[in-house]
Specification:
peroxisome; globular; mainly alpha
Length: 240
């Protein structure tokens, strides 16, 4: 229990949440373009910069940042839960012993499952809010009219039932492999570098994290596309 409630686990959780929020804020327009490309298959422009130019031209200069607050809130909660669970489970399991890549993968997977079950409602809401007001080429997408995060929760529970907040949980559980694979590669690369030096620099950590994330994202990207479409299908009749 002491390992679960440890100061170290809390520090990792806060650091992970803050780091993710900072990164998402910087690259949020790219995430907006990604989501549009995934869910709006009738859009003619297929490159990131062309999609962003279209969004700005049709919806305004700030449109690429639409839905920033709900996304950041969800990301902050999600990464806090994940990092806290990951480091707590690792501390309980390893207990001073040397960790292995296999253990990191298992711990990462379990932490991901816990994260999905606890934070899926936030992601359902933020996906709808981020796409609200967007000019889609696909006429089958049904527009929403949420006034904010709380109102979105209220309308979804009222109109669709509380279980609707967990729609899309299955593909999200499949995507648990993303952070699990990411942490497996991250921890593995870190251990290899630590064999050659006593301490890692900030640049080392940045490069290792970027490489691990790139590998994990490439391997699981098809699942991410399906997940985005299913979350939008909650309030539309696309492909139905």
């Amino acid at each position: 229990m002491a390992s679960v409630l440890s100061y170290e686990s809390l520090v990792h959780a806060v650091a992970g949440a803050v780091g993710s929020v900072t990164a998402m804020t910087v690259f949020f327009p790219l995430d907006t373009a990604r989501l549009r490309l995934q869910v709006d298959e009738k859009r003619k422009s297929k490159t990131t910069h062309m999609v962003l130019l279209e969004i700005i031209k049709e919806e305004g200069l700030l449109a690429p940042y639409r839905g920033w607050f709900p996304v950041i809130s969800s990301l902050c909660c999600s990464n806090f839960v994940y990092f806290y669970t990951f480091n707590s489970l690792k501390a309980l399991w390893v207990k001073g012993q040397r960790s292995t890549t296999g253990k990191d993968l298992v711990v990462g997977f379990v932490a991901g499952v816990v994260n999905v079950l606890l934070t899926t409602p936030l992601w359902v809401v933020n996906t709808r809010l981020k796409l609200q007001g967007a000019k889609f080429r696909n006429e089958d997408i049904v527009p929403t009219n949420y006034k904010g995060i709380i109102d979105a929760f209220h309308q979804i529970i009222r109109d669709e039932g509380i279980s609707a907040l967990w729609n899309g949980t299955f593909p999200s559980l499949l995507l648990v492999f993303n952070p699990a694979v990411q942490f497996m590669f991250y921890e593995g690369l870190k251990r290899q570098l630590l064999k050659k030096r006593m301490k890692l620099s900030s640049l080392d950590v940045f490069i290792i994290g970027a490489v691990a994330k790139a590998i994990a994202t490439t391997l699981t990207y098809p699942l991410q596309t399906v997940q985005s479409i299913l979350r939008l299908l909650i309030h539309s009749n696309i492909y139905q």
